[in-house]
Specification:
- The protein is of the alpha/beta class and 236 residues long.
- It has a single domain, classed as Rossmann fold.
- 32% of the residues lie in helices and 31% in strands.
- The strands form two sheets. It has a six-stranded mixed beta sheet with strand order 6-7-8-3-9-10, sandwiched between helices. It has a four-stranded antiparallel beta sheet with strand order 2-1-4-5, covered by helices on one side.
- Strand 7, helix 6 and strand 8 form a beta-alpha-beta unit.
- Helix 3 packs across helix 4 and helix 3 runs parallel beside helix 5.
- 37% of the residues are buried.
């Protein structure tokens, strides 16, 4: 089994200028992740959990450190030094990200959002239409909502749409920031079914969770973040 990701001595801080305060979000974080494995991350609010995902996705840049990703297209690449063009490609074809919050595109329906994700992978419009409907149905989004604008959706509906839009690409690496937040138990079951299927098909995953029961039997290792540091993972 080959290594897909290596996080090496990442440091990240944020400055709150009006308070003249510097917050150390990550303090020498290192771990590795093999292909097809699932790492879970737990920790209190402010412990650096979301920051590590945003660094891997390159939304943030660190003060120092490396994130070595074994890309299908580019080979071994440090995401912290990758060009914007390379990152755009990786986000489109190899690395997915599910946030708690849906960035609503204006005048774009729920159906069109998911279809666009499929089209970005080079699939045909017919395939995109079928795949989008299957994903929306799986996450129990009412068909009456499919051709509506998500700005009118509840928090849970937006989150389910966000997950559907990300998973239809079947990325090599999928980053999940609280994918079960604001979901009822039935919706959590649907999410777990999809994550289990993706993992069986070879997707590598990193997920932030508060629901420890949800993680049981799904994650291969769990890291506990505390004040910018992480405790060595344990099997679950």
């Amino acid at each position: 089994m080959s290594q897909l990701l290596e996080v090496k001595s990442l440091y990240k801080s944020f400055t709150i200028h009006h308070l003249a305060n510097n917050i150390q979000a990550l303090n020498d974080i290192s771990f590795t992740l093999d292909e097809g494995k699932f790492i879970g991350i737990v920790g209190k609010s402010g412990s650096g959990k979301s920051t590590i995902l945003k660094l891997i996705y390159r939304t943030y840049l660190p003060e120092r450190g490396e994130v070595i990703y074994n890309s299908e297209r580019f080979g071994s690449i440090d995401l912290m030094k990758a060009s914007e063009r390379e990152m755009i490609y990786l986000r489109q074809y190899e690395i997915g990200y599910v946030s708690q919050f849906l960035s609503v595109m204006p005048r774009t329906t729920a159906r069109e959002i998911v279809e666009q994700s499929v089209l970005e992978m080079g699939k045909s419009l017919d395939t995109a239409k079928v795949t989008a409907e299957e994903a929306l149905a799986h996450f129990d989004l009412d068909p009456e909502l499919w051709d509506n604008y998500p700005v009118t959706f509840s928090g849970g509906e937006k989150l389910r749409l966000n997950i559907a839009s990300a998973i239809v690409k079947k990325p090599r690496l999928l980053l999940l920031d609280e994918p079960t937040a604001s979901l009822d138990n039935d919706s959590k079951v649907k999410v777990r079914e999809v994550l289990e299927k993706l993992k069986k098909e070879g997707t590598t995953l990193i997920g932030i969770f508060h629901d420890l029961e949800f993680m049981e039997g799904l994650c291969d290792k769990v890291y506990d973040f505390h004040k910018g540091k992480c405790v060595e993972g344990i099997k679950v």
